[in-house]
Structures are given as structure tokens and as C-alpha cells.
Write a structure and sequence with these properties.
There is one protein chain. The protein is of the alpha+beta class. The protein has 2 domains: 76 residues, OB fold (Dihydrolipoamide Acetyltransferase, E2P); 172 residues, Trna Endonuclease, Chain: A, domain 1, CATH 3.40.1350.60. Helix content is 17%, strand content 46%. It has a 7-stranded mixed beta sheet with strand order 1-16-15-13-10-9-8. It has a 6-stranded antiparallel beta sheet with strand order 4-3-2-5-6-7, with no helix packed on it. It has a 5-stranded mixed beta sheet with strand order 11-12-14-17-18. Helix 3 packs parallel to helix 4. The two termini are 29 Å apart.
């Protein structure tokens, strides 16, 4: 993925959950932040940000969107508006073997009392080993989560309690019980992450539900991305799939 026409600015403040104040050529300007996380370890005074100007015809108070923040000389995507496209590119590229037999049937699929990111279906005449062996049902429910928190090379999600995230996992479990395949992809925006774990300290209920989902057969795939800034364009590419651990003991 390439995100073009970006401006390099300085972070000033975050007055509320979805608003950031940045400094550009001596002026303080408001921008929309499309990320519900706390981001305490990322949004610190004077840190570099990448922002993108909103379309001229958009009827909104803020004229810019926050795209990424610089940490340890690397760029971390903090705009969930790009998650769906990143996941769609992953699906089409066959980067994840367990999902490679599938193609996108519908985005924002209503299931139970939730709206999940994708409904996938098996490709026609797919020749992959997974499809040939019929390891998976005809359809798959897929949810996507973005992860920006890491400690000692361990990516952790969430960085704030998420009732909605827990509900999505419960819907994926229900999907398996109803004959679907189910999967959750964690988009890891910290390049040096080597393992992934749910954040038991911040959200024990989500963490336990992720364990339950794993036991029920939900596919859990944390994908680490590399980001590079070239002039005013941020290039984001999948790098590797990392393992999931629970409480530093059990691997999923």
C-alpha cells in the first residue's frame, strides 16, 4: 500500500480521543485521529507525525487526518481507516496460507449482532493444497484489528479495553459453531515485533476470549508490517507472520 501526499508535522496535543493538535510552519492545526487506542507510548510532545489533507469537498471540522507517527526512527500507522485495504491486499496476495484458498465475497458483513470486516468464500477451481484437502468450509468470517503497542519485541493488543473487540471474537466462535471458518488478523505496525500476545493486564476479558477462540478453532494471524517514507509517500508492506503466546507459556 502507498499513502501519498503526506505532510511532515509535529505533534502538540490530543485534547480528546479523536482529535490531535499539530504544528506546521508555526501554526497549530487540528486533525482527525481515527484510532480509538490510548497511544500513550507514541503520541508524545514534539514527535513527528504524518498527516494527509482531507478532500476539499468534505464537510467536516478538521481539514486533516493523522496517518502515522514516528517511533525509534520508524513509522507506525495509527489510522484504522487503512486497515480494511491492508487486509484486502493480504487476502489477494495469498500471504497467509490458511486464508489463501479464499476470496472476498463481502466487506462489512453483518453477522449476529455485529458487523465483521469480511465474509470470504472459497475460490472456484482453487488448486492450493488447503482447498484440495478441504480443510476449511466454503465460507470464512474474518475480523481485522490494528496493533501499535509493543514491549520488548512483543506486540500486545489491545492498548485500551475493547468490549467491541471481545464481541467480535464471540461472533467468530459462533460462526465456527454454525459451520463457517473464522479468522482474526492482527495488523502489527511495530516492525521489530517477534511474538504477539493479548494484553491481559489492560483487558483480561478480551484476552480470555481470544484464548477461547483459539481453542474453538479460530485462526489467529498476527502480521508484522514494514513502513518506509519516500518523499511524501508512506509505503506499507507485509513483512512476516509471528507466533501467538498466552501468558508467556502457551503458544496458539
Amino acid at each position: 500500500m502507498k499513502i501519498k501526499d503526506l505532510l511532515l508535522v509535529k505533534f502538540v496535543d490530543r485534547p480528546n480521543r479523536f482529535t490531535v493538535i499539530f504544528s506546521y510552519h508555526g501554526k497549530e492545526i487540528s486533525a482527525h485521529l481515527k484510532d480509538p487506542g490510548r497511544l500513550k507510548e507514541l503520541l508524545i510532545p514534539e514527535v513527528d507525525l504524518l498527516v494527509k489533507k482531507a478532500p476539499e469537498n468534505s464537510n467536516r471540522k478538521t481539514k486533516y487526518d493523522v496517518v502515522a507517527v514516528c517511533k525509534d526512527k520508524k513509522w507506525v500507522l495509527i489510522n484504522s481507516g487503512y486497515h480494511s485495504q491492508l487486509a484486502a491486499d493480504l487476502i489477494k496476495s495469498n500471504f497467509i496460507p490458511e486464508i489463501s484458498p479464499y476470496q472476498i465475497k463481502k466487506k462489512e458483513y453483518g453477522f449476529g449482532k455485529s458487523r465483521l470486516d469480511f465474509l470470504l468464500e472459497l475460490k472456484e477451481n482453487d488448486s492450493s493444497a488447503y482447498a484440495k484437502q478441504r480443510l476449511y468450509p466454503e465460507k470464512m468470517l474474518l475480523e481485522v484489528k490494528g496493533c501499535t503497542l509493543a514491549e520488548n519485541k512483543k506486540a500486545i493488543f489491545p492498548d485500551a479495553p475493547t468490549v467491541r473487540g471481545k464481541k467480535h471474537l464471540q461472533e467468530l466462535i459462533t460462526g465456527i459453531e454454525q459451520g463457517f471458518a473464522s479468522a482474526v488478523i492482527f495488523l502489527i505496525m511495530v516492525e521489530d515485533a517477534e511474538i504477539f500476545s493479548p494484553n491481559f493486564k489492560t483487558d483480561p476479558e478480551f484476552s480470555q476470549t481470544l484464548i477461547d477462540a483459539c481453542k474453538k478453532g479460530v485462526i489467529i494471524k498476527p502480521i508484522v508490517f514494514k513502513t518506509r517514507l519516500k518523499v511524501n509517500c508512506l509505503i506499507i508492506k507485509p513483512f512476516k507472520i509471528i507466533d501467538v503466546i498466552f501468558l508467556n507459556i502457551n503458544k496458539c
